[in-house]
């Protein structure tokens, strides 16, 4: 049985950047680039035109925001995923994108390997985020006043290895980087991550980082 290609819409108003990202997606044999858009209007039309699986979008567009595109995607294609690729790393932009429904948030210094791995992570139910973005999320939670003492009784029991991997998740490490830094096999990392998600009652990386910081398990 042939696996259907992943249908992708890309939105980026900068021509050279759009061409580079489009080439990465186009050359990946597991995906079909349905449209490479420069505006919010073009993106909405592309979402309407095809039953897409993934939107990759910048936030600053000439006629609106990528956040509007993510919200539009959620209304029209509720099963589709969204990844933000942006130069913006401020708290307001990050939180607004995640609240709108973005499952991943990468900064524009991501190379081709990072982008494809991020797409695979998102489609597998995980949330790829750059390390700077993880710090923004954790800092926001820390500022909400959820101290470790207040949450001592609610903390799940994570093993020492799970805590090591949790720190790696918060810093945005890939599976390969986690395996190398901890001297364990790459196949072992997803097993630990699934246990972490179960114990934190999280379904993806962003939720795990949020919950761990809320409970005082990690501080960046």
TrEMBL record:
Gene3D superfamilies for this protein: 3.40.50.2300
Domain HTH luxR-type, residue spans: 151-216
GO terms of biological process kind: phosphorelay signal transduction system; regulation of DNA-templated transcription
Gene Ontology MF, one: DNA binding
Record's keyword terms, sorted: DNA-binding, Phosphoprotein, Transcription, Transcription regulation
Chain segments annotated as coiled-coil in the UniProt record: none
The Response regulatory domain, residue ranges: 7-123
InterPro entries: CheY-like_superfamily (IPR011006), NreC/VraR/RcsB-like_REC (IPR058245), Sig_transdc_resp-reg_C-effctor (IPR016032), Sig_transdc_resp-reg_receiver (IPR001789), Tscrpt_reg_LuxR_C (IPR000792), WalR-like (IPR039420)
Keyword Phosphoprotein: yes
Domain of life: Bacteria
Modified residues (4-aspartylphosphate): 58
Transmembrane listed as a keyword: no
PANTHER family in the record: NITRATE_NITRITE RESPONSE REGULATOR PROTEIN NARP (PTHR43214:SF41), TWO-COMPONENT RESPONSE REGULATOR (PTHR43214)
Protein name: DNA-binding response regulator
Annotated organism of origin: Devosia elaeis
């Amino acid at each position: 049985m042939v696996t259907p290609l992943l249908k992708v819409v890309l939105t980026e108003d900068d021509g050279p950047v759009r061409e580079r990202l489009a080439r990465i997606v186009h050359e990946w044999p597991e995906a079909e680039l349905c449209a490479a858009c420069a505006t919010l209007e073009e993106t909405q039309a592309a979402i309407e035109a095809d039953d897409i699986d993934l939107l990759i979008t910048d936030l600053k567009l000439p006629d609106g925001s990528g956040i509007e595109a993510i919200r539009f995607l959620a209304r029209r294609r509720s099963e589709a995923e969204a990844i933000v690729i942006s130069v913006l790393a401020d708290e307001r932009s990050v939180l607004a994108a995640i609240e709108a429904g973005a499952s991943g948030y990468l900064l524009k210094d991501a190379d081709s390997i990072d982008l494809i791995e991020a797409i695979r992570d998102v489609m597998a139910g995980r949330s790829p985020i750059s390390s700077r973005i993880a710090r923004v999320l954790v800092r926001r939670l820390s500022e909400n006043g959820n101290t470790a003492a207040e949450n001592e009784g609610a903390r799940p029991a994570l093993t020492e290895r799970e805590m090591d991997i949790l720190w790696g998740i918060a810093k945005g490490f890939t599976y390969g980087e986690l395996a190398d830094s901890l001297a364990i096999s790459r196949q072992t990392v997803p097993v630990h991550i699934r246990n972490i998600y179960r114990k934190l009652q999280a379904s993806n990386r962003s939720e795990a980082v949020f919950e761990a910081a809320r409970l005082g398990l990690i501080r960046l």
